[in-house]
Design a protein that fits this description.
The protein has two helices and ten strands, in the order βββββββββαβα. The protein is an alpha+beta fold. Strands 3-6-1-10-9 form a five-stranded antiparallel β-sheet, with no helix packed on it. The radius of gyration is 37 Å and the shape is elongated. The two termini are about 75 Å apart.
């Protein structure tokens, strides 16, 4: 036993946090503007969350639209990140930024989007609607088109927050398909029910304990029934003894009660 009261074996007294693992891929995107597109992703989460494995940001290759009028581009960029936390506040969100490489080699923003990582383990396919900030006037919009400097957010993670979004003017640009797989561990020990196998096992265990208590009560009832039977047998034995004494007493004798 150490001086701090813990076990010297290195095993903690209780769970220090729960884990969330998100894997999958940014499969494809559909945009009417732009020919050569690439996607950048970032992870936004609360202060109680920590990335313990994988990458919290990434940059895909540049994909070109196929000939024939199809607006889609294929990236198939992998996602693999694991988190550890003690509080569900600030659940992770995936922030997407799609850029175009124009004819002059400039990076032009084509869309922002945010995806909330599902809270229940499973396999999901999500379609993220993207948007870009709109110019405040027609002149600024023409200038942005002429110079290639479209309006952008200073911090891409701004789209995953709610503060200040009500005063932002945006326009819709496209959609991104994301395939994501979610695994969790240790959430039941922290009081969070996700509906997965660990929660079902704990529910069955609790139900079994309640059944055991009920069985013990039934055993007590059986013990009470046995005591009542003993009293009934003693009453019958006393009655039989009195009958024997009456049958063997001589005529005219007095029997003391």
């Amino acid at each position: 036993m150490s001086a701090t009261g813990g076990d010297d074996t290195g095993v903690s007294d209780g769970p220090s946090g729960f884990f969330v693992m998100a894997t999958g891929q940014i499969r494809r995107g559909e945009f009417s503007d732009g020919e050569k597109l690439y996607c950048k992703f970032d992870v936004a989460c609360g202060p109680d969350w920590k990335v313990v494995q994988g990458h919290a940001q990434g940059l895909s290759q540049v994909a070109k639209k196929a000939a024939g009028g199809d607006d889609g581009v294929v990236w198939n960029y992998p996602i693999d990140v694991s988190f550890k936390a003690t509080n569900a506040f600030g659940w992770p969100r995936l922030v997407l930024s799609v850029f175009e490489v124009d004819a002059l080699g400039r990076d032009v923003i084509r869309g922002y989007g945010a995806l909330h990582v599902p809270t229940v383990p499973g396999r999901y396919t999500r379609f993220v609607r993207t948007f870009t900030p709109a110019s405040s006037s027609l002149f600024q919009e023409f200038t942005a088109w002429l110079t290639g400097n479209r309006p952008e957010f200073f911090n891409p993670k701004f789209v995953s927050q709610g503060e200040g979004r009500e005063v932002t003017r945006v326009r819709s640009t496209g959609v991104v398909q994301v395939d994501i797989n979610v695994l969790t561990r240790g959430m039941s020990e922290h009081g969070y029910a996700t509906g997965g196998p660990p929660d079902l096992a704990l529910t069955a265990k609790a139900a079994g304990g309640a059944g055991g208590d009920g069985g013990g009560g039934g055993g007590g009832g059986g013990g009470g029934g046995g005591a009542a039977g003993d009293r009934e047998r003693r009453r019958r034995d006393r009655s039989a003894a009195r009958d024997d004494m009456t049958a063997t007493a001589p005529p005219g004798a007095r029997r003391d009660r």
